[in-house]
Amino acid sequence: MSRVPAKVYYYTFIPCDIIALILQAVGGAMSSTSNGASSVGANIALAGLIFQVITLVVFSTACIDYMFLSRHVWQAAALPLRFKVFCAFFTLATLLIVIRCSYRVYELSEGYTSDSEALRDQPLFIGLEGVMVILAALCLVAAHPSALFKDHAGSLAEKQTVQDSDQAEV
C-alpha cells in the first residue's frame, strides 16, 4: 500500500535526523567557542534546524499519504480505541515538535547577536519552546505504545513463562 518499501523510511529518515542533530551540535559548539565575531556556527546550527523541519514535514507528508492509500483497510477494520488514541496523540506530538523546531529556525535566523529580537522575546520562547516540548512529552506519555500493545505483550510473556516452566518440569 505504501508508495515506497518500509525500509526506505528507515534508511532515509533516521540518517536525516542524525545529520540534523550533528549539524545543530557542531553549530552550537562552534558558536560557544566563538568570540562572537563569526556567525559560521550559528549558520551551521540554523542549517541543521532547517534540515530537521524539512525532514519532519516530508516524513509527516509520507505518513499522511500512507494513511490515505490504506484508508480502505483501516476503515473496514474495527481499530481498537487504544490505537486511535495513540495515533491522535502521536500526531499531536509531532505537530508540536514541528512548531517548536520552526520557532527555533525563526529564533536563530538573526544569529546569536544582542540585536536579535527573537532571542530576547522571553514569553515567545517560553510558549513556543518550553510549552511545546512539555506538551509533546505529555502526549507521548498519555499515548505510550506500551498501553497499546500491553494485552498482546502480556499474553506472549505469560505464554513464554508457561512454556519455560513446562520445559523445566520435563
Task: Give helix and strand order, one letter per element, not per position.
Answer: HHHHHHH
User: Quick check: average pLDDT?
Assistant: 85
DSSP helical segment count: 7
Radius of gyration: 22 Å
Tell me the domain tally: 2
Helix content: over 70%
Shape: elongated
Decide which structural class fits the backbone.
Answer: mainly alpha
* Major beta-sheet overview: none
Task: Note the beta-strand portion.
Answer: under 5%
- Span from first to last CA? 47 Å
Per DSSP E runs of 2 or more residues, the count of β-strands stands at: 0
**Model regions low in confidence, pLDDT < 50 over at least 5 residues:** none
Q: Topology, pairings included?
A:
Elements lengths: L5 H28 L6 H30 L1 H6 L4 H28 L8 H4 L1 H21 L2 H25 L1
What labels would you give this structure?
about 170 residues; mainly alpha; 2 domains; 7 helices; about 85% helix; elongated
Structure, described:
By secondary structure, this protein is mostly helical. It has two domains: about 1-75; about 80-170. About 85% of the residues lie in helices and about 0% in strands. It contains seven helices and no strands. α4 (about 80-110) packs antiparallel against α6. The longest helix has 30 residues, at about 40-70. It starts with 5 loop residues before the first helix and ends with a helix.
